[in-house]
Amino acid sequence: MRLIKLFAIFLLVVSCKKEEPVTPSESFKLNNGILVLCEGLFQQNNASVSWIDLGQGSIDNQFFVSRTNLSLGDTGNDMQQYGGKIYIVVNVSSTIEVVSADSFTPIKQIQMFDGATAKQPRHIEFSGSNAYVTCYDGYVDVIDTASLTVTNRIAVGANPEGMTVANNKLYVANSGGLNFPNMDSTLSVIDLSLQTEIQKITVGKNPGSVISDATGDVYVIARGDYGAIPSRLIRVSSVSDTKEEEFPFEVSSIASMNNNFLISANNTISLFDPNTEQMISSNFVNLSDVVTMYNVVYHSATDKIYIMDAMNYTNTGYLRKYSSAGAYISSYHVGLNPSKVLFYD
Amino acid sequence: MCFRLNILFLFVLPFALNAQEDTVQHIQEMNVAVAINKIQILRYRNQNEFLGEKDIKMLATNDLGELLSRFAGVDLKSYGGLGGLKTISVRSLGSTHNTTVIDGFTESNGQTGQSNLGRIQTDNVVSVARTTSNSYAYLLPVSSQAAGANVALQTFENSFYGDSLMIRANVRYGSFNQKSTYLGAKVTRGKFYVSAFGRYRDAEGDFPYQFRNGNTIQNAIRKNNDYQDYYFGTGLGYHLRNIKFRFGYRGSASNQGLPGAVIFYNESADERMSNEDHTAFGDLTWSGTNVNIRLYSNANLNQLSYDDPSYLNSVNAISTSYENKMIKGGIVLARNVGDASSFRGGIEHTVSSLAVDDTSFAKPLRNHSHGMIGFDSNLSWGQISLALYGQYVDEFNRAGSQPDDLFRLNPFVSYTSRVTNKHLVKHKLWYRNSFRVPSFNELYYNNIGNQDLLPELAHQFNYGVDFVPWKDKIDLYVRTNLFLNLVENKILAIPTKNLFVWSMQNITNARIIGGEVYFDLEWNRNLWQRTISGNYTYQSVVDITDGSLNQGHQLAYTPEHKVNVDLSSFYKGWGFRLSNSFTSMRYALNENIEQNELPGFYLLDVGAYFMKTIRKNEFRIQLNVKNVLNNNYAYVRSYVMPGRNYLITMSYAFN
Lengths: 345, 655
Known about the structure:
The complex is a heterodimer of chains A (345) and B (655). By secondary structure, chain A is mostly beta strands. Chain A has two helices and 30 strands. Chain A has a four-stranded antiparallel β-sheet with strand order 3-2-1-30. Chain A has a four-stranded antiparallel β-sheet with strand order 4-5-6-7, with no helix packed on it. Chain A has a four-stranded antiparallel β-sheet with strand order 10-11-12-13, with no helix packed on it. Helix content of chain B is 8%, strand content 59%. Classes of the chains: A mainly beta (345), B mainly beta (655).
């Protein structure tokens, strides 16, 4: 019996291991580095933020936990800086985490619920004193950036995704993704003065990302049905609010690079000139080191291209750095499914 | 995109020698070896993972899944507590390689390819055994013999043993406001028996739990966990000379909330699932001097409905119904050839279909034929067993394309040494080749399904030694096994275009190297009886896929170490049992990094009963405290399990 008691005590001790929360350093300042939002995986509660400290040469892949003692939640979908704050949109947790842009100190968690139903926020854009958040329940929520409260809900189409501001209007892609295979095909136009939808423009099946160029034209990615209907890039005039052009090539993500666009599709990146509407280079970046191209951004201050590599989506990913000519430079090992970056120069 | 569909996919998509007489009967009824004395029971128990009626009562598990987690080599995946989806994986082969056999009839579900063990009750189960080799199982259905592993249950109602009238009844009340009542009776008159049983269970199900959020421990209540179910059936058996007939029906209906994964900061959960299941079965067993033949058939109708009243599509809801139908028939026989050898063979055919009220879904119908021939010979130096299984699968989709027909041959070979000395030392060596076909969900489910999937193959090698170091005053049985399993073309769902566009793929080859040690120590003194039984399993389950990012990593949800130790003590009408189980750290994803670690856990359960027998009436009251130390744990990441909980059972038996 003595052995049995010892065994029970051993297991008791083993099972009672506890850790104390760490007190984040108050003097910490974000400087000379890159914040990377890593989406994580659905139902794993493992969205994360990586901090690449270029000065120290170190990477903290649990940076959100380090600074807040809390997890970011489930499926981090967007991260933007506006003024002195960083806004992180967490889709499945249905929250927006607001932290200070200089020290990453938590300011507020905005809970995005309509009664007991999660609104499932997806993307965030800013104009004036407001933040605009697409919510999968068919609305764009207006958040006052001073009080950090939701002040208005603007009805749009089904399951809105990306947005852009052009000509004092907000263009919202209505994906209708949860009606698969009968997805939406429209782009909602919201008048920012009236804060109401004034028009829907039919663009193409399953619209997702939206971007505008220097001339005020709006570009939408219609993602198709991931099968027979291919993805397409659509140009919309923000003056006439009409569909102007459908480009005959596939596209999965788009990013501005000076006055051009970096367009990715099928694990290649092309350089597209929106002024001439011509492809400058169809294989602009050497992606031989990239397993799964998940997003691309151009950082003008350092004149570098950064590619987020999701690997096989279930393994932690990489942020890969390229020259503006598309030559590989180096990689940073970050969290699971990196999708957004913020630069600190 | 439509990530909630993944939830839907997940769900539609687990001793005592003073009971010697019962144990012998149950073993016979399971169509295993004819065990008629203590030594033969020892041998049987040493060959198979086995729990008898006394153990099952003491453990007071909610369902078969919890019960099977006591076995060596069995990993349970539980998506919640009471009523939640439960599947098991035997030696890390994956749940779909495993078959569940109830009273000699195979449970199967073409849609998911696996049984939800959370729906199989244990009130009426008198024995359960897990086996991976063919020994002692020659009259089981051919499909279960051909499977990578199987679990065989024997219920009280569908067996010939017992006196003229037997009654079993119990009432339970426990934490989370769970209530259940069960009544079963069997009348045996000369050559026939007739039986019936019914069970009702419900629970509010909400339970408190603690969880780690970053560096912070938080408390919450698990909601939408309510459960209500009915389980009922009847059986009829007739015994004419050396022929036995059995017919029966089993039905169940349930309605439950689906609490889903715990999502940080988001407690919304309102999805529901309801199930109706009807099974009719019958068999004829003829036992001659030199030949045993069994004809069997069973048919199953399963209706499942899933509802999400707050889904963010255009109608703000999902409501989908699935109807699975299956009919199976077969014959198995074993014939002695000379004094020391026997031949066995069998054929089986199964037709299964799926209908979904979503018109975009396939309408598959599958013909699956099994054939088997085998030969066993007792030689002076041991027993040789050979078997060859053939399977042909013909698939037809009335709503579109379907995969090609499939034909496979799978051999099995084993050698078991003769018992060499008084310690009953026996060496076992066997190899099994098996495969499992993709389920309807894996082939057709919306854009996740993939009709180009190959069957998942498994090669199993096993070497074991059984021995009984002590017997008489103190009995000690020891069983050890070393095994190597190689799995090819493992079927997994992975994101292929983005995080919300998943697809089923044959992506992984795995190598499983493991060992099991099982022991059962029992000693009796005066009126005291004490037992210590336990098992330890080690498994290295490694991705060996060429070019894989995780080559050499332990696969997700496969603990390296698992320990069960049970201490029992009985004195007159009193009984006490301490159940300990430990599961080591696992990874929630295949990449072996700290962020994917799911902590190991230790569980301590305690049970005590008092039993009074007055003539043929047995009254019993039992208290179980589960997770006594109130530890926080989860089998699956984000699916928390209950803390300390209580269960009181009052039962009555008439023998």
